[in-house]
Amino acid sequence: MQEPEEKKIALELLETEQAYVSRLHLLDQVFYTELMKEAKTGKTVPEEVVKMIFSNISSIYQFHAEFFLPELQKRMEDWNCNPRIGDVIQKLAPFLKMYGEYVKNFDKAVELITAWSEKSPPFQELIADIQKRKVCANLTLQHHMLEPVQRIPRYELLLKDYVRKLSPQSPDRGDAEKALEMIFMVAKHSNAAIAEMERLQNLWVVYQRLGLEDDIVDPSNELIKEGPIQKISTRNNSTSEKYLFLFNNMLLYCVPKVIQVGAEFQVHLRMDVGGMKVRELKDAEFPHTFLVSGKQRTLELQAR
């Protein structure tokens, strides 16, 4: 008798979970623990740095090793009399929000490993030493650290497959569909957390380039576009180089600073987007020109 397709997928979920838990064990109980022990002696790197590299890996490891894996194992042992995993995954899904923290921190963690490996040879040696062990399978710490980042998308794929293979009458149908929906929301949640992080990071860089002017710094602003522009002076028929930042609520008309200490631009004019009008000009002498008029004033600009 051939195994039903959905059981094969449930077994694949269990097997990948076992492999995943041993990967988490390596990250938390071997790399993190040993690097932390060395950091405490004060010879390699500050303890804070080790904590920043590994983020909340300990919570993730404990959750999978002590809760999710044992529950899955129990399920697969009872499969013949109770063929279902949907309810277990529903219990798992809310905890996966913990990954948002880890995923968000990942790029910074990799940068820290690189930076401190250059700064501290003993730190680099200890990592190299652990990487030589059989359990590392010739892979780097960075490679192992990527695994949690890829785990939620993996659950999503496996569960999608599982739901697809279930018969409409299956006792696990409702639970599995609800579990998939929950996992999908969590995957979106961690992507949204990363996107929001990046948005704020980019916004902050723009504010620094503008010299952190008080009335401009606002975390809810969104940068839509920025770039160089020529300002046309009708008085003497000449153009001068300016720079525009368009946010969701304002247009900043800036002058590039000659001496770039601190800020890169000086804000000359701030126009509110509310009530702003843009009109294209047909000017033979200056092609690609347009007028921007706001409550404050009107600018005649030329694009490239």
Automatic annotation (TrEMBL):
Give the CC-aspect GO terms: cytoplasm; cytoskeleton
Protein name as it appears in the record: FGD2 protein
* InterPro entries registered for this protein in UniProt: DBL_dom_sf, DH_dom, FYVE_RhoGEF_PH, PH-like_dom_sf, PH_domain, SOS1_NGEF_PH
Gene name in the database record: Fgd2_0
- Any one GO biological process: filopodium assembly
* Segments forming domain DH: 5-193
Annotated keywords: Cytoplasm, Cytoskeleton, Metal-binding, Phosphoprotein, Repeat, Zinc, Zinc-finger
Which source organism does the UniProt entry give? Loxia curvirostra
A GO molecular function term, named singly, is: zinc ion binding
Highest rank taxon of the organism: Eukaryota
The cross-references to PROSITE patterns, in alphabetical order and at most eight, read: DH_2, PH_DOMAIN
The principal localisation class reads: cytoplasm
